[in-house]
Amino acid sequence: MVERGRDESGRPRNTRPRDALGRLLPPGSDGVPRIPDDLELSASESLEYAQDLLNRGLAFNAHEVLEAAWKNGPHRERPLWQGLAQLAVGVTHVQRGNLDGASTLLRRGIGRLGEATRPVPHRVDVVGLVGWATALADDLDARAAIAPPRLRPMLTAVPGRWAAARYPFIYEINTWPWLNGMSASGSPVDLSTVPDERWDAIADAGFDAVWLMGVWQRSPAGVAVALADAALVASFREALPDWAPADVVGSPYCIGNYQVDERLGGRTGLAAARAALADRGLALILDFVPNHVAPDHPWTSTHPEYFVHGTPAELAADPESFTDVDGRVLAKGKDPYFPAWADVVQLNAFSPQLRAAMVDTLRDVAEQCDGVRCDMAMLVMNDVFASTWGERVGQAPAEEYWPAAIGAIHQSHPNFTFIAEAYWDLEWSLQQQGFDFCYDKRLYDRLVAGEATDVIEHLRADVGYQNRLVRFIENHDEPRAAAVFDDARAKAATVATLTQTGARLVHDGQLEGNARRLPVFLGRSPREGRDPEASDFHRSLLDVLRDMTFRTGAWSLCETSGSNLAAWCWDGDRRWLVVVNLGAAPSTGRVSAPWDDLAGRTYRLTDPIADVVRTCSRDDLLDGLPVELGPWQWHLFRVE
Q1: Of 215 and 150, which is predicted with more confidence?
Q2: Residue 507 pairs with which residues in a beta bridge?
Q3: pTM of the prediction?
């Protein structure tokens, strides 16, 4: 027998090498790295670490992490951690080919999870895990084939409100100035110390997810570029008259590394923020930028083959499009319709090595959030990338970028959400390539232009397509809605946006009527007073939109007569009818709802915001409800 190593107190140590499946190897062999005996992590860190190991096929190591959490955690949580560890051992036995032993361990883990305290702590998805383990054990007993992705269970639950919302409401936060604003009046605040009342306010307003824009490490090289750009400096001064160079933290889309910036709280701080959101049922969305990185990103020195290159002659002739990075000429990031971005370098989306590295990056990102908003997603589509860069990047791969990347992530994170920033009428194509939602810039542009007919024609598109669009009248790239629309138009445009199908995006400060757009390079915001009228309007509207019908129901466009009238309806737990006058003159007409199944003779229509109640007949709703609205007025009717 080989003597087992012991520490100074006589306790055995994990000194024997093991292979990836946890099997002992002869002394001196090269095994996989072992989990330290004295591992002590927080519950969230233990779950994150164990999940990463499961996703990489290292179920035995995951069991050791979960076992350490069981031994170090409070006694009341032991059944939970023991059950999780037993499930990991069950997966280990499947990997080793011991199917009977695997079934036994899985069923034992199911029993222990059944003894876990309620409510289950740490967002552990006991219900989902029990269902997964039961189905896996049954298939093992039946000797059914087990695909590898089935051996990567998700330990934590998708946040409840997010999971329930087919058409979610998302709240965008520019993370750096948001935290800075909370820090201005006292102690520094990072993602780990955001006051509960701030998260509560977002949850209480009815949002299903928070997009924390700009958490990744910023680039010192990008900051230098920004400070040297006279046009950018002028925009800083306009947005923040008392700005100073220290306020310039760099663009969140000039990423120095996909690590949470320590000045924002680091990975641990982000995990705390995610847990706080999940406790309230909200998901966390982060950024992913497929097209480019900062010139001081580690890859520019360690993997120059990931980039689009130029020549010294091209750099001399066109310094706006090329840059020197450590003696190599790299192309600056660009889209085909504008000059290159000065602060980023172009990744080669046709490189197999780059694609593999980006999938690995996405996997790590997916461990830290519930979805990503993919910046300028269309730029890495094969045809767009080929037309932008031509022969310089060679022949396009047989497979598109996004189906490969999204498919790889969904193997380990099947519920992970992909949102595309998309333009140029490529939204439908990106949906076909796997995106859950795509920006609807077209609706925004038509609302800004003020042509009701164009808005209505846009809404005639296929409903399945519209269900997967992101509607907005403001985000960090667009001017503030309060600066684009007057008060009446802003309300009409907001109603027309937030009552559509698909995902709905609201920008931090929009609800308060903020009018000053902040350049994304700045880490401090100007102080703007709250507009009481705008705040009251948004609060009243969001109160109505809490109804789950707007998240899970069926949306339909209604036929209208009368100039500038647009109408649509929702059918779900309740029925809602929305009518908006998208014009500067009064409008009179009729609205017909596509509700052929209406059974009653008389219906009451209640607009809880305008405090209007009217009655109508079934025939009115089907054949044409008379409507009269002043300029930019609207009704949001609950139909009973």
Answers
A1: 215
A2: 172
A3: 0.80
| Residue 635 belongs to some domain of the structure | yes
Residue-range definition of the domain harbouring residue 123:
43-157
CB 348 within 8 A of CB 387: no
Alpha-carbon span 2 to 12, nearest angstrom: 13
Judge contact between 186 and 224, C-beta under 8 A.
no
| Confidence category of residue 2, pLDDT binned at 50, 70, 90 | very low
For residue 629, give Cα distances in angstroms to 362, 458, 497, 589: 49, 22, 18, 9
Q: With the CA atoms of 559, 564, 565 and 566 taken in that order, what torsion angle do they form, in degrees rounded to the nearest 10?
A: 70
- At 480, is the secondary structure helix, strand, or coil? coil
95 within domain boundaries = yes
Residue with token string 């189906």: 403
**pLDDT tens, position by position, 300-337:** 999 999 999 999 999 999 999 999 999 999 999 999 99
Structural contact between residues 370 and 209, judged by C-beta atoms closer than 8 angstroms: yes
Q: Which two tokens stand for residue 264?
A: 């924002």
Number of C-beta neighbours around residue 491 at 10 A: 22
Buried b (16+ CB within 10 A) or exposed e, 370-385: bbbbbbbbbbbbbebb
Query: Is 222 part of any domain?
Result: no
Task: Please give the Cα distance from 202 to 196 (Å, whole number).
Answer: 10
From CA 342, how far away is CA 336, in angstroms rounded? Answer: 15
CA–CA gap between residue 572 and residue 550 (Å, rounded): 8
Residue written as token pair 């847990």: 275
How distant is the alpha carbon of residue 205 from its chain centre?
19
DSSP letter string, 129-142: HHHHHHHHHHHHHT
Number of domains into which the chain is organized = 2
In a domain, 110, yes or no: yes
CATH number (domain holding residue 60): 1.10.3450.10
Quick one: CA dihedral 458, 441, 277, 59, positive or negative?
positive
Q: How far is CA 29 from CA 160, 215, 391, 486, in A?
A: 46, 41, 48, 73
